[in-house]
TrEMBL record:
This is Oxysterol-binding protein. Residues 104-137, 276-301, 417-436, 638-658 are annotated as: Disordered. Keywords: Acetylation, Endosome, Golgi apparatus, Lipid transport, Lipid-binding, Membrane, Phosphoprotein, Transport. InterPro entries: OSBP_sf (IPR037239), Oxysterol-bd (IPR000648), Oxysterol-bd_CS (IPR018494), PH-like_dom_sf (IPR011993), PH_domain (IPR001849). It comes from Chaetops frenatus. It catalyses: a 1,2-diacyl-sn-glycero-3-phospho-(1D-myo-inositol 4-phosphate)(out) + a 1,2-diacyl-sn-glycero-3-phospho-L-serine(in) = a 1,2-diacyl-sn-glycero-3-phospho-(1D-myo-inositol 4-phosphate)(in) + a 1,2-diacyl-sn-glycero-3-phospho-L-serine(out). GO terms for biological process: lipid transport.
Length: 699
């Protein structure tokens, strides 16, 4: 039929972090139920570079953009593909889904359940089971079937019955018990001597045994899906194959993988009981709170993350953690060991990206649209260095839903004016807008204030909203970020999904921008941070745009932390500025007039943020919320920090469970849902617009 047509064409395929995306020629073979790809169309007569069985596969359009989609085969293989546009993606996705459904239904029809058959895993020997070994020529049936021997062509492969699945589950439970006994025996060995619990071979045995059990759990999950497809005739619409989570809680393995026996509730510190007993957030006042910057004091804390020794000491914990992870596994719901945490929340980390507020405020002082775009790029590239605390890659606290962070910065106007030079834009009297004066009606201050607020607006997926404004310069930035983290083998990748918008109200300009991906490399030794990916900055009104590439280090040679970019006028396609260098060291800007400017990020002055004292903060403000975890980390008491962190996470799970049972939606405090994004409830562009309207009416 027309719906089962064989289609072919070029798609981009994601290979790996080093190679990235590559064009490949794909062929959908409906008769065989295969998706094949070749290097190019000319090599189509040769052996395919790769083949996926589509029976039982899940075809998923990606939420990253409108061009990307994934093909998840029942075997566990995955192709991440990208079409040229949304229409082409829809064409491929619909044809792949039709083919997948057809061949999945064929499995159920061609392999009806047997009426009775005794089956025991104990009677199966791996040496007598050649039929379960994977070969490229196998059809889809073999991925869902378990038999004693390879059967002659034309004979049906026995399919497991529900009671057989119960038998399998029982045998796997026994195997899991034996595996736990093995781990316990290893961990009971002395810490020193001829054979210790930290012996590298024994650690590898622990990791391998755990990975084996995870693999068996995945296979069992596929068998359950196969049985469901037989009963219903096909996989239900929207079904996804979700891999089983590790049976052993990661939160219970902090020292050499051993479970920690936390004290009973009555013996817990008062601070832990307080963390668990804070009322449901929606029962607290969710009305936005106006923070008075005069109550904020200059931050004097200096939590540098320079503890390199802890990583080596906890090597066994990392090995144990790795044994429970799979390539590409989403780490959103994985509880990571406490010792790898930074002493700040992710919301505060976003605030630290604003540590050069003088450069931020100077953007709007550019005398032309070209200069303002270049200034924004300069500010953007200088923000990441201070956002990282030290060279070691540690993870900030995962914000709890409803958590907020407030701070501000003050800069002498003379400093910003000196930076702006003669480019300060003059405003005619007709363009001037009188903003509401402060309550005390005080005289004009000799400094600029940049105010910042962030809120965790969603838990699953984890989405943060943040907003900053400088009222005196009529500029503000609003952004929302969804952090998606994945396990990549010897590194962890974090994708920042979302968008930010900078508003320069006196020019009527909006600059949209995105954030690069971040990677924690060498997680078995001394982990370090690397940024990667391409980001774009656009201003639709002026027609200027910037393209910035954060380059990951090649496997051989190459520099670390390299970044390149260019600013251009889209109408004429003229490049007006080029930038190159390292995002945490020295940047070189070359302008169209031939001038060159060097920015040494290590020598840039950092403006300390101003934060309210803990006693004046609300119970869900970041520093007060995490204060006991932070204090324990400062004291080097990992066990105590873990206990406090566990109490906060358990409270969040209980609250989420209660909301689900009562069907109570979460109510945010400072940010409102706006389409796919989140917007601050009282942005400056509304305040300025209201002030302009009021002035017009009074005139």
């Amino acid at each position: 039929s027309d719906h089962m047509e064989n289609i072919c064409g070029y798609l981009m395929k994601y290979t790996n972090l080093v190679t990235g995306w590559q064009y490949r020629y794909f062929v959908l073979n409906n008769d065989a139920g295969l998706l094949e790809y070749f290097v190019n169309e000319q090599s189509r007569h040769l052996k395919p570079r790769g083949t996926l069985q589509l029976a039982g596969a899940v075809i998923s359009p990606s939420d990253e953009d409108s061009h990307t989609f994934t093909v998840n085969a029942a075997s566990g293989e995955q192709y991440k593909l990208r079409a040229t546009d949304a229409k082409e993606r829809q064409h491929w996705v619909s044809r792949l889904q039709i083919c997948t459904q057809h061949h999945t239904e064929a499995i159920g029809k061609n392999n009806p359940p047997l009426k009775s058959r005794s089956f025991s895993l104990a009677s199966q020997g791996s040496a007598n089971s050649p039929g379960v070994q994977r070969r490229p020529s196998q059809n889809a049936v073999s991925f869902f079937s378990v038999g004693h021997h390879r059967l002659p062509t034309g004979k049906r492969v026995p399919i497991m019955q529900p009671d057989h699945l119960v038998d399998v589950r029982e045998m796997m439970s026994q195997a899991e018990g034996q595996q736990r006994d093995l781990i316990r025996s290893i961990e009971c060995l002395p810490a020193s001597g001829h054979l210790t619990s930290l012996d590298q071979d024994l650690l590898m045995l622990k990791a391998t045994s755990m990975a084996t059990m995870n693999c068996l759990n995945d296979c069992f999950h596929i068998l359950q899906l196969q049985h469901a497809s037989q009963q219903k005739g096909s996989l239900p619409a929207g079904t996804t194959i979700s891999w089983l989570e590790p049976k052993i809680s990661l939160a219970n393995h902090f020292k050499n993988g051993a479970a920690q026996n936390f004290p009973a509730e009555i013996n817990k510190p008062a601070s832990v009981r307080e963390e668990q007993s804070i009322a449901e957030p929606c029962q607290l006042t969710r009305e936005p709170e106006e923070i008075n910057p005069d109550e904020e004091l200059e931050d004097i804390s200096d939590d540098k993350e320079d503890d390199l020794g802890a990583v080596e000491e906890q090597r066994s914990v990392i090995l144990h953690l790795l044994s429970q992870l799979k390539l590409g596994m989403d780490l959103t719901r994985v509880v990571l060991p406490t010792f790898i945490l930074e002493k700040r929340s992710l919301l505060e980390m976003y605030a630290d990206f604003m540590s050069h507020p003088d450069l931020f405020v100077a953007i709007t002082a550019g005398s032309s649209a070209e200069e303002r775009m270049i200034r924004f790029v300069e500010y953007y590239l200088t923000s990441f260095h201070e956002g990282r605390k030290g060279a070691i890659a540690k993870k900030p606290y995962n914000p709890i839903i409803g958590e907020t962070f407030h701070c501000s910065w003050r800069m002498p106007k003379s400093d910003v004016a000196a930076d702006a030079g003669t480019n300060s834009s003059a405003q005619s009297p007709s363009e001037q807008v009188t903003l509401p004066k402060d309550p005390e009606g005080q005289a004009e201050l000799d400094y600029y204030t940049v105010k910042f607020v962030a809120e965790q607006v969603s838990h699953h997926p984890p989405v943060s909203g943040f907003y900053a404004e400088c009222v005196e310069r009529k500029m503000c930035v609003n952004a929302h970020v969804w952090t998606k983290s994945k396990f990549l083998g010897m590194s962890i990748g974090v994708t920042m999904v979302g968008e930010g918008v900078l508003h320069l109200l006196e020019h009527g300009e909006e600059y949209t921008f995105s954030l690069p991906c971040a990677y924690a490399r060498s997680i078995l030794t001394v982990p370090w941070v690397e940024l990667g990916g391409k980001v774009n900055i656009n201003c639709a009104k002026t027609g200027y745009s910037a393209s910035i590439n954060f380059h990951t280090k090649p496997f051989y040679g190459g520099k670390l932390h390299r970044v390149t970019g260019e600013v251009k006028q889209n109408m004429t396609n003229t490049v007006v500025c080029r930038v190159q260098g390292e995002w945490n060291s020295v940047l070189e800007f070359t302008y169209s007039n031939g001038e060159t400017k060097y920015v040494d990020l290590t020598k840039l002055s950092v403006t300390r943020k101003r934060v309210r004292p803990l006693e004046k903060q609300g119970p869900f403000e970041s520093r007060r919320l995490w204060q006991h975890v932070t204090e324990s980390l400062r004291d080097g008491d990992i066990d105590k920090a873990t206990e406090h962190k566990r109490a906060l996470e358990e409270r969040q799970r209980n609250e989420e469970r209660l909301r689900a049972e009562t069907e109570t939606p979460w109510c945010t405090k400072y940010f409102l849902k706006d389409g796919d994004g989140w917007v601050y409830h009282k942005p400056l562009w509304k305040t300025v617009s209201a002030a302009q309207t009021q002035q017009t009416d009074s005139n």
